[in-house]
Amino acid sequence: MRTTVTLDADVERLLKDAARKSGKSFKEVLNGAVREGLAAHSKPGSEKPFRVRARNMGLRPGTDPSGLNRLVDDLEIEEFIRMQARES
User: Fold this and answer.
1) Does this model's pTM top 0.70?
2) What pLDDT does 70 receive?
3) Are 72 and 66 in contact (CB under 8 A)?
4) For residue 67, pLDDT beyond 90
5) What's the CA gap between 54 and 20, in Å, rounded?
6) Are 26 and 19 a contacting pair, CB within 8 Å?
7) Could you give the CA distance from residue 75 to residue 72 in angstroms, rounded to a whole number?
8) Other CB atoms closer than 10 Å to residue 52's CB: what's the count?
9) pLDDT tens digits for 22-57?
10) Count of alpha carbons within 13 Å of 77, Cβ hemisphere only?
11) Measured between alpha carbons, how far is 32 from 15 in angstroms, rounded to an integer?
12) Separation between Cα atoms, residue 9 and residue 68, nearest integer Å
């Protein structure tokens, strides 16, 4: 099949370099690159599963992490009150 495709200059340069290095034609290198790119996206599970590595938060003994949310709430309330006082 023949079709017209407009390539970015850097992509054209990469394909021409690959064709020169491999001794293959531009067409062969282009088809191979497209095949590899599309195949990589169509394989389910080809990517590593995302994993979260839990780390110790380094809180001192006796510090209640749930209390940190209350502290943030208190600070936000204080800031809101300050802003309201400036506006009035």
Assistant:
1) no
2) 87
3) no
4) no
5) 48
6) yes
7) 5
8) 5
9) 999 999 999 999 999 888 777 666 567 889 998 887
10) 6
11) 10
12) 53
Residue tagged 């749930």 (tokens): 66
Instruction: Report d(CA 29, CA 82) in Å as an integer.
Output: 65
C-alpha separations of 36 from 27, 41, 62 in Å: 14, 9, 55
Please spell the DSSP secondary structure of the chain, one letter per residue. Answer: -----PPPHHHHHHHHHHHHHHT--HHHHHHHHHHHHHHHHHSTT-SPPP--------PPTT--HHHHHHHHHHHHHHHHHHHHHHH-
Distances (CA, A) of 81 to 31, 67, 68, 69: 65, 21, 20, 18
Averaged pLDDT score across all residues of the chain: 89
Q: Which residue is it, tokens 């195949």?
A: 39
User: Which pair of tokens denotes residue 73?
Assistant: 């709430």
